[in-house]
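@channel sequence for tomorrow's demo:
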Amino acid sequence: MPSLLDALPSRKPAHARGEAALLSLGLTNPEQDQLKVLLASAVDPDAALHYLVNLRQQRTDAFALLLQTPSALKYLIAVASFSRFLSEEILRHPEWLEEVSGMSRALTASEYKKRLGRFLKNQPDEKPLAWSLALFRRQQILRILLRDVLGLGSLSEATEELSNLADAILHISYKRIRADLVARHGTPRYVDEEGEVWECGMSVIALGKLGGHELNYSSDIDLMFVYAANGETDGEHPISNKEFYKKVANRYTELLSTYTAEGLCYRMDLRLRPDGSLGEVCISLEGAKTYYQTRARDWELQMLIKARVAAGDPAAGRALLGTVEPLIYSTTLDFSAVEEVSATRERIGEKLSRRRFGKSAFDVKLAPGGIRDVEFLVQCLQRLHGGRVPWLRHGGTMLALSRLSQKDLLSAAEFGRLIAAYRFLRNLEHRLQVAEDRQTHTLPTAPRELDLLARKMPGAQLGSAVQENPGEKLVQELNAHLEAVQEIYERVIHAQRPIYYSLPPAVAPQIEAPEVVEPTSSNLIRFLDDRAPSLAHAVSLIQLRRGAGAFEHFLEKLMPDSRLLALLDSDAQVARFTLDIFEHSPYFAEQLVRVPELIQEFGGPIKAEANYDDISELRRYFRREMFGIQAASICQRVPVFETLQQTSELADTAIAACYRMAVEHVTALHPPATSGYRPRQQLMVIALGRLGMREFDLASDADLVFVLPDEDREEHVFWTRVAERIVDLITAYTGSGVMFTVDTRLRPNGSAGALLQSEAAYKEYFAKHAEAWEGIAYMKARAVAGDLERATTFLNELQQVDWRRYGQSGRSKKDLRQMRLRLEKEQGSDHPLKAGHGGFYDIDFSLLFLRLKAGGLFYKVLNTPERINIIEATGHLERGDAEFLLDAATFYRAVDHALRVYSGHAEASLPNSETHLQILTELVHRWTPEQRNTQPLKAELAKIQNRTREIFERLFAS
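structure tokens (generated this afternoon):
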């Protein structure tokens, strides 16, 4: 697509900050110095100074109080930099800055309801309800914006809070309107089939972004009204339930859409109801069921993915959504639904493009690869797979992306690209909308405005703080994200197949037949004979069976680069390794086609250090090293646990580099609050799971938690920003790709707990509140960044707490066995290699039990072979069992590794395709003991599963 940089006008120097304006504030020298420090770090110091001058002129008392309250002064400067409409509100209501509270976490809808109830009680009787609701909304958006721009909350927290705020306003408004109409007409009631009389309620169903808990700062809210049943009110002058709720709906819409001196609450859109703008404003439950079962168009069903009850009586809405849910999700992998919706979407997109795109406007929502494409792509995959995987049924785009990835319906790289693009685009959309409380998605074209917009973006999404031409940097990042989304979108939607099924097939997808050798074209042979005779000889000897087509494509990319072709021709090992990759790994073959220079990584030394200060350079380093490690694994038959060790060290290096960058970035933008405090290695970054065990692999998630020494708790906000920045740096997608995904949910209280917690908080949680599985998880933990020595001591102490609770008390045997069998019941059918009968979890849980039995030994080295050796050496495992468990663990890790290097993502079970299974067998035999290579792979797997389960049962019975 054409670059947006081509459309940028020439730039002019920025305006001065206005010394005269600063002097006009009449500050003392210390006050002026303090203000200069705050302005120096402001995104838009000119705007901040403008509103400070206005506040002093209009409210001298409030200005004087502001100077005495550093936090309020900081808040005003932040708001003035991002939002003109909220800055004007502060001029009218400067006390709002003093009333800001609860900044440490997002508020729930229930908390907003309580706040709104108290707020309305304190409003003058003469003020219209519409005015009061609009004023409350703006006051609460002020707090949400401050959490957003000060780095105290994530994008998902901001969108959820905006949705919770809307839910509260919808709920209170509905209750007031309904109560008023009940007083006039009586309570609506209906008679059921058995003759019983029931009160009739109405559900306010949210759709679109509000339905998905992902509302913008200035979104339309899409609603639908469904009442329980036909009947009539029981008042002195009864009316039908339909007429009653029609009055409710009309008043509701009028109340929330009315413009006041404080703006309006929400623009309400009811066009997504049955029959659209031609349909009734509210509909009975039975009428809605009939419509969706018989007449609804395909896009109307897809729209209901995001539907939920936001206000009113939930019964009718839940009954409707329960009825239509099976209609939304396809029960087979039939792509006719995607084809129909895709055609509809393209027609809508063309109309919108003609109406809203112009030469000088660029719409981040509707542009190819924009917000709409990501959301549409996610919904299509949900519809196609939600029938057999109900867990995918969720209205939120970001959470749905995560679940699609966890179910391997998106590879780790694809998930990384899509989630990074979506976060970037939504943050950009938020910055555009919050300036004037307008629903806009159009990028500015004036250079100064574009530079200012770039400075408003979260630092993690534009690399380190951009000093020169930030607008150009913003547009470059935007282009990279749009192109990444487009590439995946085209592959999934236009090819009518999900990403999971788009891996390059080894042979044409048809009924399995004897393997057919792909002929190497005569043109290719002639080309190699003329230009690279040694390579031509190697190709003729190896006889590519599956990768000839991809290899030809690779050579076409290589032709302009005589240096790389000469390397392939002159170095027999490089040529042999390259052909091996094309034969056994479609995933890495595709990488070589895209980046032929990667052949230079064959056989090179693995670099242990990466002292990069630029995240893009670090990602390129990570990609090169990952390719080198995995290529050596495939081509040099490196033992699988050695490969996993190298991959873990590479991840450690990346995390440590991101730690350094995060500390520098946060220190520059948000320095510590304590004077003289020097941030260094105080924060402890701890890895659990596969990275904690040093068994990290290609496309693995990194389970990370962040722990702060107790003596540093005064700088909790600073180090929380560092932790958030570390996660953003690791997981953000740029043109050089994503490194790996990060999961922080293993912290105390999971997603509901603070990202960063103190040592004391961890110890108290694990001593008093942690579930058994949480304690077990931390037995596979190690320090990876920050103060490594202190973190190791901390983990030793924490694991002693675990041992006292579960090992010393004798609870471990029963708890572990029940936990393992529950995992088999819940996950075994979908993940037989890991969670099924005799799977890898049997080995893992056996070793955990024996470790607790041995007195809670603390291991600094945690990988499976070392654990087996230590437990055998302490006399808790017989030699024969130890040898078998080592072979079995090697086999399971080899199979898992082979599946990953073949496809680029994790698989849960062996493939059904004989061709795929043959490639997998060839790879597994490179890394497993010879005695395990005498039978077909499936037969060997069954044998290992049975013996592994036998040892598991024996250990837990003894």
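heads up for whoever presents: The longest strand covers residues 220-227.
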